[in-house]
Amino acid sequence: MEPTSDIDLMVIGTATRFEMAQILRPIQDRLNRRINALAYPREDVQRRLRNGDAFFLEVWSEPKVMLVGSEDDLPTLTETKVSWS
Amino acid sequence: MSPESEESAFRRLLEDESRKERTLVLPLARGDHVAAQALSLARVQYDRALRELAGAIESNDYDEPYLSVYRSLTSGANALLAAYGYRVRGGDGAHFETLRLSAMALVAWDRDAGTELERIREPMRSARNEAEYQRPGVTTSRELRQLFEAASAILPAMVKQVKHLVRKPELSGLEMWQVPEIPGRD
Hints:
A: 3 helices; B: mainly alpha; two-stranded antiparallel ribbon; 72% helix
């Protein structure tokens, strides 16, 4: 990642994209970097992992920087019984 | 700066943009007609969103009304630019650019509405693209409620400004944009 590249941010919880945009706007201005923010309810993430959603599987397999909580708090592939076949 | 000065500055910006090479901003011959038609379309799309709501609540899938409100806002933005005599060339990013310019236009006469459109532009685009092309069922009832609330403030401001610019008598009955009751904890 370059110092000027976009920041991808995923929030799992009850916040909406509109609420996040409100909060992130001054931060983007301060950092002078674009923040691509996505927001999903926790149960939605679990359902999509269970259904083998390619995007979530990809994100789950990549290194992450946790801003709140730890990776142990995330829904996991085994817990959600993802079928790889 | 007065609203009239801001309006003139925005008009000059559109003129300058339209003269650039490979510009997305194109002049319209009969912008007033296009504006009236686009506002009618915005109304139809918003009413469609209201009708789609019952099914969305029943199935807990809010994408369709969300997309209809998105389309309604885009049509309102098209109407506003058309009232100035311009349109944005279709293609990648056309909606985003239309909404950006429309937010700038709104600021002249209604700063709150313009700021609100600019605030929701990116999160709305992001949710719309996911819902339409990647992950259906991505919008929540809470998100839809917030979009309706924003649209119900932005669309009347668009109507008011279009009426100010084109003065067409048939542009009546477009003042009220209802925010429906949407149950749900999220």
